Amino acid sequence: MSIIWGLFFTPEDFVQGNSYRIIYLHVPASFLSQTLYLAMAISSITYLIWRVKLAAYLIIAIAPIGAMTTFIALISGSIWGIPTWGTWWQWDARITSTLILFIMYLGLISLHNSFSNYEKADKLLSWLVIVGAVNIPIIKKSVDWWSTLHQSASITLTDKPSIDSVMLYPLIGSIIGFFGLVICLVLLSSKYQILHREKNKSWVKDYV
Amino acid sequence: MFNFAFNSFYEALYMNGHGLYVWSVVILVFISLLGFFIGYTVKIKKIKDKLNEPN
């Protein structure tokens, strides 16, 4: 609903024209790409400290969805860059650190799939996710630390939003909506992981 | 706040020349989300069918 609100019912931006409407998909995807990685990092810590199996399943359940949201963020940003910056790619800090995040997601998925011993894979993956979490504050702060083509954040927790409320409300709505959709996907993916990893257990046979 | 920003459906599609960029992103997001949803639903169904097979 918020995406429709943003696409059809918000006024045209006086600088970027209608291309700014990509914000209603690009920002939620970027926000989720980082949030999902943080969720993986929290699951990794939980698994390494308390050995909660579900946390290990959650890491590998989230990874493909995180990769998908990061891919959407990169591609939508590139498409948005053509009319706005005149280029679809620039090796600036924000875009490059997001590309690194995407490669990290792919690497973690490939690494997990290459193991036949799931317990070893879970342990190694957890450590790698925690080490890789250093990239999240780099992505977040890249626009402040370096001079980048990418604009600084329009919405922060501490400052007044630099975006007009007419455009802000549908943006917040689309972030919440996108978040809900991705939570549904994470639940489906987790269900698959649990069924796949516990398929030899009697409770799974009773469940299905 | 809820005024339609365009004068016609064609204008909404064209978006002053930016429609191609905006709608390609919309399609990408729609296909990605739907693809993942269908993919996981099929995978869960397959694993359930396999577990239900008589040994």
Structural notes for this entry:
The complex is a heterodimer of chains A (208) and B (55). With 208 residues, chain A is mainly α. Chain A contains eight helices and no strands. In chain A, helix 2 (23-50) runs parallel beside helix 7 (165-197), helix 3 (53-85) runs antiparallel to helix 7 (165-197) and helix 4 packs antiparallel against helix 6. The radius of gyration of chain A is 19 Å and the shape is globular. Chain A starts with a helix and ends with a helix. Chain B is mainly alpha-helical and 55 residues long. Helix content of chain B is 73%, strand content 0%. Chain B has two helices and no strands. Chain B is rod-shaped, with a radius of gyration of 20 Å. The termini of chain B are far apart. The mean pLDDT of chain B is 88. The chains are: A mainly alpha (208), B mainly alpha (55). The interface between A and B is large, with 42 and 32 residues.
Give the helices and strands, then pairings.
The complex is a heterodimer of chains A (about 210) and B (about 55).
Chain A (H helix, E strand, L loop, with lengths): L1 H7 L14 H28 L2 H33 L7 H22 L3 H15 L2 H11 L19 H33 L4 H6 L1
Chain B lengths: L8 H6 L4 H34 L3
Which structural category fits the helices and strands of chain A? mainly alpha
Averaging pLDDT over every residue of chain B, what do you get? 88
How many domains of chain A?
Answer: 1
Catalogue the unreliable spans of chain A. Answer: none
The helix fraction of chain B, in percent, is: over 70%
Could you tell me the number of beta strands of chain A? 0
Overall outline of chain B? rod-shaped
What integer value in Å does the Rg of chain A equal? 19 Å
The backbone outline of chain A, from C-alpha atoms, is globular
Mean pLDDT of chain A: 90
Spell the H/E element sequence of chain B: HH
Gap from first CA to last CA of chain A: 35 Å
Gyration radius from CA atoms of chain B, angstroms: 20 Å
What fraction of residues of chain B sit in β-strands?
Answer: under 5%
Largest interface: A-B, 42 and 32 residues
Q: Detail the poorly predicted runs of chain B.
A: none
How large a portion of the residues of chain A is in β-strands, by DSSP E? under 5%
Q: Could you spell the SSE succession of chain A in H and E letters?
A: HHHHHHHH
